[in-house]
From TrEMBL:
Pfam families: DUF1304 (PF06993). This is DUF1304 domain-containing protein. Signal peptide: none annotated. The chain crosses the membrane at residues 6-29, 59-78, 84-102, 109-127. The keyword Membrane applies.
Length: 128
């Protein structure tokens, strides 16, 4: 296994685990004040109104996480796994870019979300 592939697999794994955590926050723990405030929702009333939307969004994050983790685990051993890693992480990097453009105040969150995924894509592509 070459260095670029290792970097891609590690970053894709970290990205996947991060998005599992995001799923848990959005879909399982959403109504905790410490969680919804992390998403810039100031009140329980607003969090309640967003509960169904966040549940759905959380599952999107979970499915992207599973793709990233699958791609990282089986990058060279299953046909198509590298493609799944690339696609999942491109989606995650794209979502980070959308967050940055739409809400520059969330620069840190966008960077945490998007940068590891983007580097995973670049290193995975270069290792193929």
């Amino acid at each position: 296994m070459e260095l670029l592939e290792i970097i891609a697999r590690v970053l894709a794994s970290l990205t996947g685990l991060l998005h599992v955590w995001i799923f848990i926050m959005e879909s399982v723990l959403w109504m905790r004040p410490s969680i919804y405030r992390r998403f810039a929702v100031p009140s329980k009333e607003q969090a309640t109104q967003l509960k169904d939307v966040m549940l759905n969004q959380g599952y999107y994050n979970l499915f992207l996480a599973l793709g990233s983790l699958f791609g990282a685990a089986f990058f060279t051993s299953i046909d198509g796994a590298a493609t799944v890693l690339l696609y999942s992480n491109l989606c995650i990097a794209g979502a980070g870019a959308v967050l940055l453009i739409s809400k520059p105040a969330l620069f840190r969150a966008a960077l945490i979300q998007g940068l590891p995924a983007l580097v995973a894509v670049v290193t995975a592509f270069l290792s193929l």
